[in-house]
Amino acid sequence: MALTWQEARITAAAPETPRVRRLTLAVGWSRPFRAGQHVDVRLTAPDGYQAQRSYSIASSPSRPEAIDLLIERLDDGEVSGFFADVAEPGDAIELRGPIGGAFVWDPPQGGPLLLVGGGSGVVPLLSILRHRAEAAPAVPALLLYSARTQEEVIAREELIRRDAEEPGFRLMLTLTRVPGGRRLDAGRIGEALAALGQPAHTFVCGANPFVSAVSDLLVEAGLPPQTIRTERFGG
Ligand SMILES: Cc1cc2nc3c(=O)[nH]c(=O)nc-3n(C[C@H](O)[C@H](O)[C@H](O)COP(=O)(O)OP(=O)(O)OC[C@H]3O[C@@H](n4cnc5c(N)ncnc54)[C@H](O)[C@@H]3O)c2cc1C
């Protein structure tokens, strides 16, 4: 069935990190969304110029009528700049979705789940983690998350709380722009696999160079390529 553009209203907006803004949108879906999927948004200027971008859904499918998007402001970013500076609660934007058939996780798929996110690439992984906690908390899951600094960690308090409270969940943070910081490397992948065991499903999301580098490391670590799913945000 072809997806049609619909009007979605922004019902709330709040800073998530210094560079990421959380927008809540009231949406009327023609079908339910699945954890990991994204939407397309389209902006139209008064002269008719249009810009269209994709944004992953951060919230859980258990709350389909109000989705959270987490949008990182990019320097000179056309659409992310609009959402960072201009969009406000009450505004309506054009949206279509849900989109994505491969980068999704449903509880019957089970686990263990290895989720690897770089920067805002953690957004669809948050939807998966939130859904897992509600619908399949016995499924083991590990989030390996690379961020620049502590203050740029998206959903930081929630992730730390889940790590402390959920027996099946483990958070491993890697910070790149702090003294002694490091990028995800073979050693860190090895630590994650030792902590989780062999994952049944691995989801990797972030900017193109991040996804390429991590996918190579995962295959070098022995994971079957067909168990690794990727989502590339561009860049
Ligand atoms: C399936 C999918 C899901 C996505 N989900 C999210 C999400 O949840 N949150 C989010 O913040 N973004 C997400 N993105 C990225 C988003 O679609 C836009 O590409 C991003 O917001 C930049 O758009 P812009 O108009 O602000 O920048 P543009 O004006 O298009 O580009 C500005 C500059 O940034 C560079 N650039 C563009 N995209 C990126 C990028 N991702 N990383 C680094 N540099 C880039 C461009 O080359 C250019 O130099 C997703 C992308 C895809 C394909």
From TrEMBL:
InterPro entries to which the protein is assigned, alphabetical: Cbr1-like_FAD-bd_dom (IPR008333), FAD-bd_FR_type (IPR017927), Flavoprot_Pyr_Nucl_cyt_Rdtase (IPR001709), FNR_nucleotide-bd (IPR039261), MRET (IPR050415), OxRdtase_FAD/NAD-bd (IPR001433), Riboflavin_synthase-like_b-brl (IPR017938)
Entry-linked SUPFAM superfamilies: Ferredoxin reductase-like, C-terminal NADP-linked domain, Riboflavin synthase domain-like
FAD-binding FR-type domain mapped to chain residues: 3-105
An MF annotation (GO) of this entry: oxidoreductase activity
Pfam families, A to Z: FAD_binding_6, NAD_binding_1
Superkingdom per UniProt: Bacteria
Signal peptide extent: none
Residues annotated as transmembrane: none
Cofactor(s) the record lists: [2Fe-2S] cluster
Descriptive protein name: Oxidoreductase
Species: Methylobacterium nonmethylotrophicum
